[in-house]
Amino acid sequence: MVYIDTPPALNFYTRSALIAAEGCLIPFDCDDFSPRALYGLLESVQEIQADHNKGLAVEGIVVNQFQPRANLPQRTVQELIDEGLPVLQPYLSASVKIKESHELARPMIHLDASHKLLIRPKEIGTFR
Predict the structure, then answer these.
(1) Residues spanned by the domain of 119
(2) What pLDDT digit, counting tens, does each position of 22-56 carry?
(3) Is the entire prediction scored with pTM above 0.85?
(4) In a 10 Å sphere around its CB, with 0-12 CB exposed, 13-18 middle and 19+ buried, how is residue 111 labelled?
């Protein structure tokens, strides 16, 4: 299995990757604007399925920046689940280290190899 990490914008590269892919994972940050962006992306995926790649499947939605004690993230994720969207577990919590990794342009594995948000091979499930 090969994963292609594309820019967050739905540009030429992202569309090309979706046209070539069998499946996709969609990151979802728990904030006010994310549901609207997610639904827009799902519509774009449906267009690509109809026009270019009938086999493209949304394998799952990866929840980022989840704060379990806050009401908004819990409510937002529950709405996705209630709509039947493939929300994956575990939800990834907010992390200052991840932001530092982005700022320094260093992969998290090199910044802090033991960080709680790094997925180790034994933790990776199958999507099909």
Answers:
(1) 95-128
(2) 999 999 988 888 899 999 999 999 999 999 999 99
(3) no
(4) middle
